[in-house]
Structure formats: structure tokens, C-alpha cells
Amino acid sequence: MVHFPQLPFGLPDDQDDDKPREECGVFGIFNDADAAAHTALGLHALQHRGQEAAGIVACDGEQFHSHRGLGHVHRVFKSEKNTIRLEGSLAIGHVRYSTSGDPALRNVQPLYADLAFGGIALAHNGNLTNALTLRHKLVEQGCIFQSTSDTEVIIQLMARSQKVSVEDRLIDALSQIDGAYSLVVMTEDTLIGVRDPQGYRPLVLGSHGDATIIASETCALDIINAEYVRDVQPGEMVVINRDGIRTLNPFPQQGRRFCVFEYIYFARPDSLCEGLSVYEMRKNIGAELAREAGVEADVVVPVPDSGIPAALGYAQASGIPFELGIIRNHYVGRTFIQPTQKTRDIGVRRKHNANRKYLEGKRVILVDDSIVRGTTSTKIVDMVRQAGAAEVHLRISSPPTAHPCYFGIDTPERDKLLAARFDVPGMARVLGVDSLAFISVDGLYRAAGLPGRDNANPGYCDACFTGDYATRLLDNETPSEMRVVTRLNERRKTG
Amino acid sequence: MVHFPQLPFGLPDDQDDDKPREECGVFGIFNDADAAAHTALGLHALQHRGQEAAGIVACDGEQFHSHRGLGHVHRVFKSEKNTIRLEGSLAIGHVRYSTSGDPALRNVQPLYADLAFGGIALAHNGNLTNALTLRHKLVEQGCIFQSTSDTEVIIQLMARSQKVSVEDRLIDALSQIDGAYSLVVMTEDTLIGVRDPQGYRPLVLGSHGDATIIASETCALDIINAEYVRDVQPGEMVVINRDGIRTLNPFPQQGRRFCVFEYIYFARPDSLCEGLSVYEMRKNIGAELAREAGVEADVVVPVPDSGIPAALGYAQASGIPFELGIIRNHYVGRTFIQPTQKTRDIGVRRKHNANRKYLEGKRVILVDDSIVRGTTSTKIVDMVRQAGAAEVHLRISSPPTAHPCYFGIDTPERDKLLAARFDVPGMARVLGVDSLAFISVDGLYRAAGLPGRDNANPGYCDACFTGDYATRLLDNETPSEMRVVTRLNERRKTG
Amino acid sequence: MVHFPQLPFGLPDDQDDDKPREECGVFGIFNDADAAAHTALGLHALQHRGQEAAGIVACDGEQFHSHRGLGHVHRVFKSEKNTIRLEGSLAIGHVRYSTSGDPALRNVQPLYADLAFGGIALAHNGNLTNALTLRHKLVEQGCIFQSTSDTEVIIQLMARSQKVSVEDRLIDALSQIDGAYSLVVMTEDTLIGVRDPQGYRPLVLGSHGDATIIASETCALDIINAEYVRDVQPGEMVVINRDGIRTLNPFPQQGRRFCVFEYIYFARPDSLCEGLSVYEMRKNIGAELAREAGVEADVVVPVPDSGIPAALGYAQASGIPFELGIIRNHYVGRTFIQPTQKTRDIGVRRKHNANRKYLEGKRVILVDDSIVRGTTSTKIVDMVRQAGAAEVHLRISSPPTAHPCYFGIDTPERDKLLAARFDVPGMARVLGVDSLAFISVDGLYRAAGLPGRDNANPGYCDACFTGDYATRLLDNETPSEMRVVTRLNERRKTG
Amino acid sequence: MVHFPQLPFGLPDDQDDDKPREECGVFGIFNDADAAAHTALGLHALQHRGQEAAGIVACDGEQFHSHRGLGHVHRVFKSEKNTIRLEGSLAIGHVRYSTSGDPALRNVQPLYADLAFGGIALAHNGNLTNALTLRHKLVEQGCIFQSTSDTEVIIQLMARSQKVSVEDRLIDALSQIDGAYSLVVMTEDTLIGVRDPQGYRPLVLGSHGDATIIASETCALDIINAEYVRDVQPGEMVVINRDGIRTLNPFPQQGRRFCVFEYIYFARPDSLCEGLSVYEMRKNIGAELAREAGVEADVVVPVPDSGIPAALGYAQASGIPFELGIIRNHYVGRTFIQPTQKTRDIGVRRKHNANRKYLEGKRVILVDDSIVRGTTSTKIVDMVRQAGAAEVHLRISSPPTAHPCYFGIDTPERDKLLAARFDVPGMARVLGVDSLAFISVDGLYRAAGLPGRDNANPGYCDACFTGDYATRLLDNETPSEMRVVTRLNERRKTG
């Protein structure tokens, strides 16, 4: 799910600002006595996919119960009351990334609507590339939108569909839509999971006793001790109700394009994506990077936490010792006092500190997963230098990020991307490193067990590296005056 | 505005529970540099018409700014920030009566929607009697409702109207609607006030320098030192924009039916309704009551605060001294500790206390404005007896309330109304008074300067006393399964 | 209880700003199954004596349970949890007037301390005139004060007393103290009420079944249906425990000096003070005022609510009709939006509105209880003029307030008092009235049934009118550098 | 700082429950334009030493400004307003570990008092072993305590000291005290750091331009880019003011007893304690453990995060590959929904998940830092087994924890300690591992570069392993009825 661009976004954490951000995680569970509680745990396991808001809708067979709020899952669902209220054996949930302030509350998913046939709730991970165009058409026809999220287009299309069954209305709606979506949808008696034909975002199927689960990642199954059954396939619609589990494939087939950045950064290392271990994939990339861009050095130091697996792979392949030369403070909140410019300049130390003993006088290979704007990398390199490193060689476990994502990842505009502004030597100069290397695109595919990138049918979406977008981007051609999604600037208060 | 009946309502204050409750107040102002601040003050003056929630939408010519919240006006708009944010010279606002809890937030008015022509906001005092029927038809056609209030039907009808101008869309929508409505509507450059053809609820026009104001009562003009121009007429639509003020009369004419209970209880005593002083009208009723139901006594004691003007009228007409024999504590909140049944039994003293010196040994004429369930009256009579009154004669400045209201007043179901369960002598026994008298229906009309009730064309709505409803009540015939407005039980959290 | 003058005080409500303010109310109950709940109700009845903060300490015979907070009683004790927690059959409580912000929390009474013999809690209405002097001496001796209130001096003196019993320690402490105090004190098994030798502030004894109650006013007995037994006498200490009720008179006798302003303004009209009905006293003053300062007019109009009884008395004595020519809006919060100067100028209408019909063309006698700064009176007179009054004659039911109070009332500094700046004709000019009259000092005593003021032994404290202070004011002679009570500016947060 | 044992402690996080907990961190800065902001950052770096509450007191040379609150540092100081208010170039701060609920607020440090010479603030890391005894004596003498923390005894003793200067009063107070304390103290112009004669808890001196800093750990210097100067020595008092830095050694010398658990678990790995790198020390222990208790295996897996350095040391020494076979979810809040027993049973997965690919079929060496109750270890071993591990060998980088700590660490009572209930083979059975080994006491000293433990003068406090307490434990001999510190159960509300 994404918001349309004219909405004000919250200021991100100083450091995470320099990472691309996953925009959502979804979870659904059918036939479980503790449906809402287990959904809350599942969302907690998916917290890395969205830290700003969380919501759950449960159904007891007649009434739907919803609780949504801003903040981390454990805050939104902190008191027992909140989930006990959410009665029913069927529930879906959603986490989304961070914007700030009250107005966003209307955008917190799952979205819910009373349609002619009954209630429906829907949670979305991904991004629709023609939502704006569809929205304008629908408003012309008399539709009133309550949120500013692209996801609501799906529900409005379902509401107006001439089809009878929920599945048919959903297929009808999705047939009009372009872009990336992994959805969980629920009615009063049915749970549906569906993935767009190219499978941009992950979605897995699990089971736990008599319960069936659909979730963004396998770690959300593990947290409740559920079993991983299989991935929902690109273009597949899984319909789960009392009659069992049915699979539909209602869309024309298209080439797979699973987001390779899920392996590099987004997904949790303990998850399996498309059957592959994310942690192993990261180690493989690190090892490949050691082969592609080896350098003599004393120590391999990850930028924690995300650089750790690739650094371990690099260290094991190169034989150079792995050390935690940088220590991360996990107590980091988004808001913090920084009254003067002077204090702001030292801000980076809030999250990372040099472990001086392991850097001083050393030739350091620093391993990180990606460079977006380069602001954080600059500060980290600086800190390592100040700690006395003799040489700093930066190795990045992704190719240069030079293109924006339109499929569910929040990236800065192109002219903010360091790799769009400089070539590799230029970037090395900006960052102040002795050497800089990125994994090659082919190296990335090799780490996934392929011989290299098959340009005709790559199998992964790597558009942020290659610019090769596999879906049309209709909204991108929309004139700017049409991009006004709402004229309302709203603030609500719960008294 | 009313909510549909299947929503849970908050527990009312122990005492007010026994009064009918006005359901809303509206305010709008055009061409005022302090539009939002003056709207907040206007709503504050209308606070008696709705204590549960308040909201303002302002427009700066391009963007709409909204702030809505639960609680009294001075709480929702307590910090300067909240109104300073609401920029623009055009604003409308709304107060509504009390339900409790978060879920209601989506129902707090003004409602806002982005329609094809731009933004629109709307605030409603009244109650539509065919809203449920229309809502079901609209949902069948693919409309998604965001609130459970009847008011949203108006906006959905406007969204789907084939008309071009805002006025025509609004006329189109209202033409399909039955019931009571005094509305303020705003677009980015226009303020519209409109009153249903029978004029059930009040609506007045005022001016203040270059600004034009529409409000439920004249007290909302007084608070900002604005001048009262005239009442908006039943069936009149007043359109205010840069071109000036235009009057439309788009609906077929019907007999006036201004709510007589506005005079008896709802409106503020310092307001003029339909040109009559509310305070004077109440005194007239008291005087009429003294003539109709005089009794020998030592003292006339009002049940404060609402019984005071009628008691003054009674005292002046009868020559019996007026005394504040009951003192009201104005520090009364809705929630309060009452841990045991024993404490609960003495609850009434929280609001009223006997001024013993003026009751002991006295023959007391107690004057109140109405009896609904009779629970509070019983406690008050009891308290007066305990204080040593020799006799208690209860005089009520309205006829017996024996029928529910469908035009914007919250009354209990018919079988809860004391006057629907007992005749006057029976009520006297239940209440434990020495004598009981209500003003007659004709007496009420005499107090308003008429010779009595003209049954062919009474001029006021007195349906709660007479059962004579002047508008069809379509929703009342709706089968109960259709009354389910939403299957969603929602709770939001602002983190 | 008062705070020392160097603490920042909250901004008062715009209008109440122009009234002297009572500074506290106290309540205690012994041997009651619902002790804390009944204390909360008692405090609610005393809310007019202090709106800023409230607290209760209860004891279950072993442990003391305390809950204290800022805001009105019904807010501080709004959930059942808060009082259910306060277990025990013995409780005391306190309300105090308004300062704003968090820091004040440490000053919210009852104060509690663990002394060598056990726990003790104490609540105070009044003001000590040598607290500052004692405090400095105690700090020199190694005492650490936790609050900035004068009341803590009493507890510190008790802690250091060489006496054995609680009563003796309390007598020991109070013997060192000058000024006004009506105290309720509790240990784990005893409730003590004590009033200073001159009896500046009220304190009454009541009973309710087996329970014994001590409270500031009788209205706090009425709310729980308790019986008024008698006033605690000046200089009397009442000790209540399982052995019954004992009376001690440990202090040298001094002339009575009950605060006459309690009758004029502070006490609730339904209370008895020193056996006299407050409402009747106010009516008597009004009648006396009619005799002293009669004028031909059409209507007697009170400034509501406090001017009502005197206006009634005036009207009855003069035969001129009483009318509510000014309507008060009771929904007034302390904080409210007033973004511009223009809006600020119209601020007064938030609380009072003219009932134009009863003022237009009329010769109006306006009755109010007091004039402090004169700011509100000016606005009210203005409003009455704007409503078309032909003449405005202002009658005040107290003598001119020309001197500050040191015995528990918050008055502005002398040079802010209108009566200290102008004579009566000068005040009339400032206020813009056709005539102005105050009740005479002797008239006040006549209203109380006395022949006039006995200057040798007046029986009431009327120092704010006469400047005749009956207690030495030691702290007033304290050099300013000694007035620094704490160097700490504190803010706490409950996370 | 510790609380006396009769206070109710909050429920700890499910997992951390099974770690000993550091009880405080302190920070002070002199002559810094951003004193409060830098103190907040310093406390943030010390967050691991106490997550429950945080406070700062700053002084502008005349007035002290305090802000204290419950929760993490970034929450307590989340808005800029909170620190901007804390003006002055001198500040001290404190973090403390977790108890829950409001009552604790009065215990949040720094403590502040107005003494005869002026204001003083104090923050304490450690635990006094005769505080209870002193407190009872002081109460007998008339002292009133406001908190229930042992720290207040120091301030009360200072208040009553006959000495003149602050230093002398502080020395006078500390001379009467037994136990562990690292203190920062401030007056309006002086910052003092002092460490108990045995130096149980850490305290370091740093500088940053013209500013001087005292902090619990060097990581609090790094975060503001300050330089580490040296450790404050056991028994040393450092007095910092405009005249410079003076060192006093007012106490009789005793043997050093720096807490060895600081190296094992408490201190941050990027800190230096007593000049040694904590990270290196942990790696050394791991390596020593590999030598002492080697075993054939396929993979070394740390229990993250605290087990990582020892596991790295073990892996490097043994040559067995290091893998993150357990992934930790850092988004863990204290409160979370767990509505049913079934869900509660799977609770551990909230924090840790198996990285199955690296455990399945493997012989796993699991490295953790300590075992307290053993509850978490059992769950982790279970999870590793469920993930398919062929063998599980648990290695612990501390000796068995068999004795409670009285010097500032929160440990469970002795009969809850697994090592007090079972021998090593017994523990292995309980935990379900194939083998279990702890580092030996001598091994621990070897890791610190010593030949082994010198029993006459060990140089470290290892009482939790050996039961060898180097300070008398007077309060432990106190009869239980004297342990009642307050009879007050308090709740405050900020309205």
C-alpha cells in the first residue's frame, strides 16, 4: 500500500532515512480460537515491514471487530482488552511504515467497508501503478473516498462490481489494476490471499492445527509455531473457508518478478522467500562480493544489523576475521532532543558507536547492504576513520540503487540517489573510502544459484538497479493537477 | 443529525438522562478573518445543543482544514494551535450530543468529501426519516458509507447527482429526503444554509461587519457581538459567496412545524427563536400554568436551571414568593465514582441540594419543564420532602410527553415515558406529590400569543405531546434486518 | 493552604479572575465502609472551594492509599478503579484552587509522611502567616521540604516534636503557628479536626449512621445524606477514634473572627455557616442594600450566579421585579482559543450574555457580590448598556474590597484592587454606571442579625474591607531573599 | 540505587526476566552550553543500565530545572521543549531499571533538595547495605522521607550534617554508609563524582572542549564525541567547578572490588571498563571457554545479542564456524497481548526465532552469557531442537550464578537461581542439553589477563558466583517489621 505523493510524510529516524523502506506486511488467519491474538503476534514478527501503524479486523461470524492505531504493534495492542475485544476465529492484520500524526489514522489498514453482500476487510502490501487514474474516474462517477491510500480503489471497484460472489467481485476489481499487490481479504466467513501476476511482493501459506494462515513472511508463521506450507504463487488467489482451500488463477500469466531487494534488505534473515533462506542468500552475496571485489585487509566489519550476514559470508570466503567493529544501540526512538546544530552533527552516534579496539590501526573492510542517499554511510566511514582505521574499504551487497521503485518500496526521488548522481569512483570520493565496490547484477543472480541475469526473463524485479520496469506506470503520466487526492487536512482528537 | 439505532450509546449523566436531548447545533461564517476562532466561540454558545463532540472545517480558498474531537468545545479546541491551523475566512462547525468512546469519532461532523467538483463539508441539525431506506438503496448501487450517521446520505446523494452546480446537487439530494434538517454546507468559496420545508429546527442569519453568519440560535451571534438579521425560513436555501447573499425556495411549500420544545427546554433562554424571546415564552408558560393550575402555597421553587423562568412567571402571576429552594452544583462531570449500590442511591445529590431553610414547613410549588421517565423528578420530590416541606405541588411547563420524537430529539422509547404509562393522577402517585399539573396544549399556544391550537394548521410541531407527526416516517416501517447499518465495531488509537 | 509567592500561578479563567478565590476545602470521614467514595462525593460538593486539584488518602488500618491529581474532583476520581483502590474505613480529602501545570503536583494535598509512630496525612484550608519564617528555621536545622506549600511546616514540626502522642505532637506544632487553619488529620486509626483559635475558616461536624464526618461546609454532609451535628468551634480539636469523639481546647482563647466573605461569596448558598443559612444571609444583605441604597428602577438583575440571592433579597425588599436579564453559560472551560486581539475583546460573552428583552429601555438595578479589579464589572455594565438599558444602577452586596487577605483567600495585590485606587464616585465613573453603591460595613453586620460592627470585638474577620487584621503577619516582614522557597523548577512525566 | 524490598516491582519483560539487571546509570556534565541535551544523549547511551525511568536536573547558576519521567530516555525527553527548558551549563542525569506504574515517580532520580546552603541534586548507581538501618534512625529523629529509595538517606544525612561546605557534608554522609555507590552530585556551581572505596560500580571521567563529564561508561562519552580521560578511582571524590578539577581521597582505603558482571553482561561491548575493552574481555572469555570446555561441533551459535562476542571468541579459538542460528527481533515491548495460556506458551518466539537452515542436522554449540532462573535457556534450547539440531552443547561465559547481589544488581532470591538448586549435570538435565559448561572462576580471571583468582585480594567482586561478599550487609540482619519503609501506596495523576 502506498499513499499518494501530496500527503505530508513524517520525518523518519535520522538513520533509517538512508535505507529504502518496505511499506507493509500482511497477515490473515482462518479457523483459530485466538485469531486476533495470533494475528497480533504475526504482525509483531512482521514489524520490520512497517513501524508506523498497525491494525486488525476480526470477525465472529456476524460482527466485525476492528482495532487500528499508530505506533508499533506492541503499543497498538498493548492491553489485553484490545485483542480480547476482537472476537472471532477469523482475522486479518496489517503493519505499515511510518508517517507521523493523526491524519494518517484514516489510512491505517485493514480497510473495511459494508458492501451490499455484507462486510469486507482488506489489507495490502504493494503499490498500484494506476490507482490515481482509477480514483479520478471513480470520483467522477460519484464515489466518495475516505482514505488517501491506493488500496481503497480496490474496495471501491468491488463495491461497484456487477458480479455476485466476493471472489468474482475481487477478480473484477483486480483485473482493472496494474502494479504490485499481496492482499489478504476477509468476509464474515472467508479468508482470501492473492498475489499479483508477477509476484512482486512475498506471500506465504501456513498451517497450525486446524487453522490456515496467510502472511508476508515465514517468520510470522514461526512466531506462533505454525508450519510453512508453501508460497502463494504469482497470480494465485487462495480462497479459504469451511469448505477448505481453493486455488484460482484468474489472471493472464506474466513473468515472475519477485523483488530481489527482499533478499538484500527487507525480509527478515530467518525467513524463507520463494523457498530460499534469506540469511543464506545474504551470506552468498557476501561471499560473491569477496570473490568479485576482494582486497587485503585485517578485519571484516559489518554495519549492523543489516550488514551482518553479508559480512559473515565475506569473512568466511576471504578468510579475513569477522569482528563487530561497530556496535549498534537498539534503544532508538524516532523523536529525540537535539536542541542545537552542534548536537545535531553528532546525531549518528545515537545508533552506532565505534568499537575502537577493533578498528584502530586496522585495514577495515566495511560491509553494508545498500547506499541510498549516502548520508549515513558518510557518517559511519567518518566514525571508523576517527577510531583510527588505517584503511576503509566499503563493500555493498547490492548493485548501485539508481532508480526509484514503484512497486511498494519507499525510495527517495531519483536526484537524491547517490548512485544516480555519481559513478563508483565518484561515490568513493564522496564517501571518503579507500575503495568502494558493489556486487554486480550478475553476481546477485549467481548468489541466487542462477548463472547470471537472463535479460529476457530475469525472474526477479531488479528495477531499482537496472531501471527495467516490468509493469506500465500509468499514474506517472498523470498531469500534476490530477494528483490532488484530497483537499482535506484533517486532525481528529479522541478527547 | 442522528445515528441509527443499533449503535451503542454512551451512558448519559445520571440526571440529564431524564431530559429529552437536543441532538445538534450548527454554525457557519463567511468572509471573516477569524473564521475558525469565531466558529469555535459560536459552537461554545451552542454547547447546550450537544456536549459530546465538536468539529470545525475551515477553508482558505484552496485547502480545507478540519479538526474534530470528542468532548466539550473548549476541550476539543483548547489549545490555540488547533484553531490557528484552521486557516481561512470561511468555516462551519457542529456540536452534537453525547455518546461515549472512540468509535463515534468517524461520526463527528462536519462531514467532508472530495467530490468531482471539489471539496464539500456539511453539518446537520435534525433527523431524516427515510435515511435508512435511502442508504440501503445506495449501498446496493455500490456506495461505501464511512459513518453511521443519517447525514452522510445527503453527501452520497450529492456525489451521485447528475447536476452541475453545488446548489443544484444539494437541492437534488434534499428533494429525495424526508424529515428535519437545518444544514450548513460549505465549498471552497460558498456558504449555504438550508432549512427543511417545515422548519422543524431553528436556523438564523446574522452579520458582523463584512462577515455573514448562519447559526442554530441567536446566542451564537451574541457571543461574537454579531447582529441578528432574521431567521432562515422553512424551506429556504441561503447561498452566500462573493457575489452576495441569494435566497432560493426550491421545495414545495408545507405548513410550518417549528419544534415547540425548543421554547420549553432546548434553546437557550437568551435566544430568540422565530423572533420570540425564549425566556419570555417560558415565563408566559409559567404564568399560564399559574392561571390553569393555581394552588395555595408559601413558595415557588424552580428545579434549576431549566425550571427557573417558568417558576418566575408562575411566581409573578400568582404573587407567591420565588425562592431558590433547590441549589444546583454546576461542577458535574459525566463519569464519577460510585463504587457501591449504597452510594449509587444517593447519587442525585451530586447535582441538586435542598436549601432547607426555604423548604422546611413550607407548602412548596415545584416548577420543572418536563417529565420524561420521571426518575429524576421522584428523587427531587423526595429530597424536598426530606428537607421538611409540608406540601409539594409539582407544576410542569409542558404537556405530558407521551410520544417519541423523530425530528432530531433523543427521547426514550415510548414505554419508558411516564406519561405513556400513567394518567396524571397515576403520575402524581408515582412521584409522591400532593398535586401535579401540566400546562395544557392550548395553554402552550396561548403562551405563544395564539388563541389556542389550530388543529388544521398548528404552526408548531408538538408531536411529542399530541402524536400528530407531520412528516411520513418511512424508516419506521423498515424491517429490522435492514436496520443493520454497519457490521463494524471499531476502535482507533492515535498512538 | 497557600503556596509561597514566588511560585508561578496559573492563568485563571478570564472572568473568575475578577473574584477573590477560596483556596481550599477539606473533608474527613471515620468508620465508613465507603470512606473514599464518600470523601470523593464530599469533595465534589466542595468543588467551589478549589477547582485545581483534588486528593484523597484512605487507610485500611495498616496501609495508607493515596490518589491525587490535577483537575476537578470528578476527573481525578473518574474511574471506579481510583476509589476502589483507596481501601479503608477512614479517609480524608482536599480540594484546592487553580494553578496550572505539572509542577504543582507535589503540592496537592492531603500531604502524607511516615513519622516515627506511623503514617500521617493532613489537609488544610487556610493560610499560615509565619510559615516562611518557620520554614527557614527548619531548613537550617536539616529539614528537607518536599512541597512549597505552607502546610508542610505543620508536618515537619510534628515530625520533630518531642511529644509522644499524635495529638500532643499536633498541638505542639500548631502552638508555633500563626494564621488561619481548618485542618483534617488522620493516622491509621484516628481522624482529627482542628480549627485555629479565631476560627477564620469554617469546619463542621456531621454524622451518618456510625460514621463521623468533618467537612468545610454542610453541603458536603448533604450530598451523602449525612446529618449536620454542629460547627467545630474556634480553637477546638476534635479527636475521633474507636473510643468515640473527644474535644480538646489546647490553645489560649482569642476573639472569633469567622471570615465574613464566606457568607458573601465563597460558601455555597445551601450551606449553613456558624449556624446561619448562607442563602438567607445573602438575601438579607440584598434587602439591607435596598434599604441603604434604594433607587427607582424597572427591574432587578443579578450578575449570575453569585449575585442571585442578594438580587432576590433586593427585589423582595424593594418590590421591583426580579428578572434574569443576564444569562450565564455554564459550559466554560479554563483554556480556550482566542487567536486574535479582536476575539479577546469579546471574550466576556463566553460566560455571560444579555437577555435583551428584559434590559432594552429598562432602568436596571444590577446586583453583584463584590468588585475586585473591576474588569469584569466593566464588561458586564457595557453589555447591559449595549442591550439598550436606559439606566444602570450597580449594587454590591459587600463593602469595597480595599485590603488583601492573608487568611486563605487569593486576592490581587493592593494596587490592583479598584477600591484601593478610587473612591465610590470614582469607581462609578470607571465602571460607567449611573449610580453605584456598596453595602455598608454596619449594614453587613445588621444582615447577620447584629446591631452593627462592634469594633472592640467584631466577631467576624472583615479585614479585606476594614484593614483590621487580628493576627500578626510575620512572613510579611520577611526580607525578599528569604522568600525563595525552592530553587527547583520541576516537571514530571508519567510516561 | 535500589528500592527497599517491600515495594511492589513491575513485571519484567518475559525474557529479560531471566537476566540479572543493572540498576542504574549516571551522567554529569560541567561547563557545557548544551548541558541538558548532552546529558540526555549520554543517558541514551546508558539506556541498557536502566530502562524504566530517566531524569535530568540542570542549573543555570541560580535556578535548578528538573524533568523526570517513566520510560526510555527518548520518550521522557522526546520533545525539544523538555530539554530546552532545562537551561544551564551544568547538568546531571540518571536512568534506572524497570518497575512499573505511577507510584515510582517519586523515586525517579536525580533526587533534589533545598538545603540551608542552597539546592543540591544527586544521582546514584549502586546499592547501600545499611540504608534501612540509617533510615529508621533518621525517622526517629524527625526526618521525613519523600522517596523509598536508599539514595535519599545520603541527602538526609547531608542536610543534617554540621559541616559547612558541600564536599564536607557529602563526605560526612558517605562516611556513615556501607555498600556500593557511584554518584554524581551537583550544586548550583559544582559537579562532584564519587565512587565507593571498593569501586563496585564503574565511573569514568571525560572531556569535550571546555566541558568536563562524569559518566557510568565510556560509551556515554563516545555518543557526544567526548574524550575518555580516565576512570574515577575507587574511593575517589572528583570536585569540578570554575577553579578546575580537584581530587579528594577522604575514605580509608580498601581492596578493589569492581563488579566482574559488568564485563560479562552489563556494560556495553563498546565501553572500556577499568581500561579494558568489554568486547575483548567477552571474546577472551569465549576463547577461554573453548579451551576449558571444547566439544566437536558444526557451528557456534550465540544467543543474541549478549552472547555474540563470547561466541565469536569461542569460534575463533575453536575454528568452528560462527553463524547467527538464532535471530532476534528487536521490536519488543514490555506489554503485549497474550490472551490465552496457549499463546503464552509460545511467547518466547516474540524475541528469538530459529534460523532453521543453520541448525537443521547440525551439532550446535550454543553460547550465552549467564543462566539465572533457566527459564529462557530452556525455551531457547527447545527451539533449537525443534529446528532440527542434532546436538546442543550449551556454553556459558560466566560461572554458575548461585548467590544474590547486594551491590546494585537485581537478582532473584537464592532459591530461584538454577545454580543454587542443581549441580552442573542437574542443570544440563533441566535444560535438556547434550552438554553444559560454564567458564571457571579462574578462567574468568585469566580472561582478564590475571593468572587466576587471588583469593586474598581478588580485585573484582564475584560474590554472585563465589558468595564472597567484601562489605558488611547490615540491613540483611534487620528484623522484618523494620523493613516497612512507607505505609503509603500512592497514585498521582497529572490531569
TrEMBL record, chains A, B, C, D:
<comment type="similarity">
    <text>In the C-terminal section; belongs to the purine/pyrimidine phosphoribosyltransferase family.</text>
</comment>
<dbReference type="GO" id="GO:0009113">
    <property type="term" value="P:purine nucleobase biosynthetic process"/>
</dbReference>
<dbReference type="Pfam" id="PF13537">
    <property type="entry name" value="GATase_7"/>
</dbReference>
<feature type="active site" description="Nucleophile">
    <location>
        <position position="24"/>
    </location>
</feature>
<protein>
    <recommendedName>
        <fullName>Amidophosphoribosyltransferase</fullName>
        <ecNumber>2.4.2.14</ecNumber>
    </recommendedName>
</protein>
<keyword id="KW-0479">Metal-binding</keyword>
<dbReference type="InterPro" id="IPR029057">
    <property type="entry name" value="PRTase-like"/>
</dbReference>
<feature type="binding site">
    <location>
        <position position="259"/>
    </location>
    <ligand>
        <name>[4Fe-4S] cluster</name>
    </ligand>
</feature>
<feature type="binding site">
    <location>
        <position position="461"/>
    </location>
    <ligand>
        <name>[4Fe-4S] cluster</name>
    </ligand>
</feature>
<feature type="binding site">
    <location>
        <position position="368"/>
    </location>
    <ligand>
        <name>Mg(2+)</name>
    </ligand>
</feature>
<dbReference type="InterPro" id="IPR029055">
    <property type="entry name" value="Ntn_hydrolases_N"/>
</dbReference>
<dbReference type="GO" id="GO:0000287">
    <property type="term" value="F:magnesium ion binding"/>
</dbReference>
<comment type="function">
    <text>Catalyzes the formation of phosphoribosylamine from phosphoribosylpyrophosphate (PRPP) and glutamine.</text>
</comment>
<keyword id="KW-0315">Glutamine amidotransferase</keyword>
<keyword id="KW-0658">Purine biosynthesis</keyword>
<feature type="binding site">
    <location>
        <position position="464"/>
    </location>
    <ligand>
        <name>[4Fe-4S] cluster</name>
    </ligand>
</feature>
<dbReference type="Pfam" id="PF00156">
    <property type="entry name" value="Pribosyltran"/>
</dbReference>
<dbReference type="GO" id="GO:0051539">
    <property type="term" value="F:4 iron, 4 sulfur cluster binding"/>
</dbReference>
<feature type="domain" description="Glutamine amidotransferase type-2">
    <location>
        <begin position="24"/>
        <end position="243"/>
    </location>
</feature>
<feature type="binding site">
    <location>
        <position position="405"/>
    </location>
    <ligand>
        <name>[4Fe-4S] cluster</name>
    </ligand>
</feature>
<keyword id="KW-0408">Iron</keyword>
<feature type="binding site">
    <location>
        <position position="369"/>
    </location>
    <ligand>
        <name>Mg(2+)</name>
    </ligand>
</feature>
<dbReference type="GO" id="GO:0004044">
    <property type="term" value="F:amidophosphoribosyltransferase activity"/>
</dbReference>
<dbReference type="GO" id="GO:0006189">
    <property type="term" value="P:'de novo' IMP biosynthetic process"/>
</dbReference>
<keyword id="KW-0411">Iron-sulfur</keyword>
<keyword id="KW-0004">4Fe-4S</keyword>
<dbReference type="InterPro" id="IPR035584">
    <property type="entry name" value="PurF_N"/>
</dbReference>
<dbReference type="InterPro" id="IPR017932">
    <property type="entry name" value="GATase_2_dom"/>
</dbReference>
<keyword id="KW-0808">Transferase</keyword>
<feature type="binding site">
    <location>
        <position position="306"/>
    </location>
    <ligand>
        <name>Mg(2+)</name>
    </ligand>
</feature>
<keyword id="KW-0328">Glycosyltransferase</keyword>
<comment type="pathway">
    <text>Purine metabolism; IMP biosynthesis via de novo pathway; N(1)-(5-phospho-D-ribosyl)glycinamide from 5-phospho-alpha-D-ribose 1-diphosphate: step 1/2.</text>
</comment>
<dbReference type="InterPro" id="IPR005854">
    <property type="entry name" value="PurF"/>
</dbReference>
<dbReference type="InterPro" id="IPR000836">
    <property type="entry name" value="PRTase_dom"/>
</dbReference>
<keyword id="KW-0460">Magnesium</keyword>
